Amino acid sequence: MKLYKLLSFSFLLATLTSCTFTENITINDNGTGKFSVDLDGSSMMAMAGDQLGQQMGADAKKDMDSTFTFKQLFEEKKDSIAKLSPEMQKELKKIENFVVHTKMSSEKKEFLMTLSTDFKKVNEMQDILQTISTLQKLEGGTGMNPLGSNFGDNKSKLNYTYDGKKFTRKAIIDKQKITEKANDSAADMSKMIFASSNYVVKYHFPKKIKKVSNPNALFSEDRKTITIQYPFTDYMENPDKLNFDVEFEK
After folding, report:
1. Most C-beta atoms within 10 A of its C-beta, which of 7, 65, 180, 184?
2. Which three-class secondary structure state does DSSP give residue 97?
3. Looking only at Cα atoms, what is the longest distance across the chain?
4. Does pLDDT of 180 surpass 60?
5. What span, in angstroms and rounded, lies between the C-alpha atoms of 6 and 146?
6. Which of 64, 157, 72 is CA-nearest to residue 113?
7. Rounded to 10 degrees, what is the CA torsion of 15, 16, 19, 22?
8. Which residues of 14-26 are buried (b: 16+ CB within 10 A; e: fewer)?
9. DSSP string, 113-167
10. pTM of whole model > 0.85?
11. What share of the chain is helix, strand, coil (3-state, %, to 5)?
């Protein structure tokens, strides 16, 4: 399946159905790690069958297990990228090593997509989700963000910090973007589309967790992993609600 067709398919599913988005971070002892966002649209895939069939044709009936990188996508879009500003090209460079893995089975009613990348330090991931949303700015880029056109564009800048003693996830609200969103009729449509979707953060650390500032955090048995679930509308409209600190045992 061609990349554009695959991307438009996942985009269609994300905008037609309720989904679960999971933001994963795994940090190793030396500070390196892996970042990923998982999209699970399996539970509602059957409800969108007619629309998906029209969009994908015969491909909608095939099982799929596909992997590609944004670097491959950017190679196909190199002429369009060359027309962008140096700043925008620099932004896209940040995500070229992301790997996109998609599994789909109409028979099993399964649709799973993972965007993942490795990092040397967690602060390399600053604004990474916002950068993914810039895919829409490419020529013919409508529908190229596999997680949905508004994903990552939630009027904030997201920062991560980790020093071995404390981890912080902090979204800083961009007041200018709040004003722009208030005048954007598409915002109401997005709110309706994602009203029944969830946003989950799941972080694994190399040390046992002493405490988390969010009282809804669930701990793994070894107290090295936390999971927190939010309504997706919080991620989109009140991203600072997803801010929290993690302190570790000595």
Report:
1. 7
2. coil
3. 57
4. no
5. 8
6. 64
7. -20
8. bbbbbbbbbbbbb
9. EEEEEEESSGGGGTTHHHHHHGGGGSTT-TT-STT-TTTT-SSEEEEEEE-SSEE
10. no
11. 40, 30, 30
Q: Is residue 70 a contact partner of residue 95, using CB atoms and an 8 Å limit?
A: yes
What SS3 class is residue 34? strand
Under a CB-based contact definition with an 8 Å cutoff, are residues 225 and 198 in contact?
A: no
Residue with tokens 């991203």: 239
Give 25's Cβ-side CA count (13 Å radius). Answer: 25
In this prediction, residue 217 has a pLDDT band, given cuts at 50, 70 and 90, of: very high
- CA 188 to the chain's CA centroid: 20
Q: For the purposes of burial, counting CB atoms within 10 Å of the CB of 151, is it exposed (0-12), middle (13-18) or buried (19 or more)?
A: buried
pLDDT above 50 (res 198): yes
Amino acid (1-letter code) at residue 247: E
Radius of gyration (Cα) for the chain, nearest Å? 18
Selection from 108, 124, 134, 190 nearest residue 162 by Cα: 124
**pLDDT, position 131:** 79
Q: How far is CA 43 from CA 7, 104, 124, 140, in A?
A: 19, 12, 33, 30
176-184's contacts with Cβ under 8 Å and 24+ in sequence apart are: 180/155, 181/155
DSSP state of 43: G
